[in-house]
């Protein structure tokens, strides 16, 4: 089974469990779902979060961007013309430098997932962050596509976990 079908099946099962009335009213498994794609960083991030969440684990997107500060001022000169001075400034975020794109808890383990698409590579801050996570016993993974992520997931988190939890379906 390819990963798109697997993810679609997980979503149907999740909706059936968590919102049975909505699931039934929306047509059940014939319901039209937004297609999954791992061609962009946002698409792959959505795929991973949905896969983990629908499988019964916790996953969330982490953002460490700062914010824009508007330092522009408008005034009217002596001839009545409007003038603007100043500019926009970027304030640095308060999060940890190099933090991963996703944070998850799988089978009681802390997992950090960095999403890299195409020619995107880890920065020095991200490499340093990875070393800190791994040194403290956490798991760090760089996801470049959904198929590789799913294979990594099943290699590291054996299917026996699913037999203990009973809720998520098994796909191998």
Overview of the molecule:
This protein is an alpha+beta fold and 172 residues long. The chain has 6 helices and 8 strands. The protein has helices spanning 3-18, 20-25, 41-54, 124-135, 146-156, 160-165; strands spanning 58-61, 67-70, 73-76, 82-85, 88-91, 102-106, 109-115, 139-143. Helix 4 (124-135) links the parallel strand 7 (109-115) and strand 8. Helix 1 packs across helix 3 (41-54).
Instruction: Please state the oligomeric state of the protein chains shown.
Output: single chain
Distance between the termini: 8 Å
The helix tally amounts to 6
Beta-strand fraction estimate: 15-25%
Specify the helix fraction band: 25-40%
Structural class: alpha+beta
Q: How many strands, what sense, and barrel or not for the largest sheet?
A: 4 strands, mixed
| Whole-number mean pLDDT | 88
> Would you list the SSEs in sequence order as H and E?
HHHEEEEEEEHEHH
What's the short version?
This protein is α+β, with helices and mostly antiparallel strands and 172 residues long. The protein contains 6 helices and 8 strands. 15% of the residues are buried.
């Amino acid at each position: 089974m390819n990963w798109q079908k697997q993810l679609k099946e997980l979503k149907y099962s999740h909706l059936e469990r968590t919102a049975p009335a909505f699931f039934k009213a929306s047509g059940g498994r014939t319901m039209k779902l937004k297609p999954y794609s791992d061609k962009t960083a946002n698409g792959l991030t959505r795929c991973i979060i949905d896969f983990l969440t629908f499988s019964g684990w916790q996953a969330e997107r982490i953002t460490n961007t700062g914010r824009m500060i508007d330092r522009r001022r408008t005034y009217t000169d002596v001839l009545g013309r409007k003038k603007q001075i100043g500019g926009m400034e970027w304030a640095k975020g308060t999060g940890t430098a190099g933090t991963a794109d996703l944070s998850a808890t799988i089978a009681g383990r802390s997992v950090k997932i960095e999403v890299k698409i195409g020619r995107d590579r880890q920065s020095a801050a991200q490499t340093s962050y990875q070393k800190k996570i791994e040194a403290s016993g956490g798991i760090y993974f760089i996801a470049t596509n959904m198929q590789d992520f799913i294979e990594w997931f099943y290699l590291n988190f054996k299917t026996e976990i699913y037999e203990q939890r009973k809720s998520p379906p098994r796909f191998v």
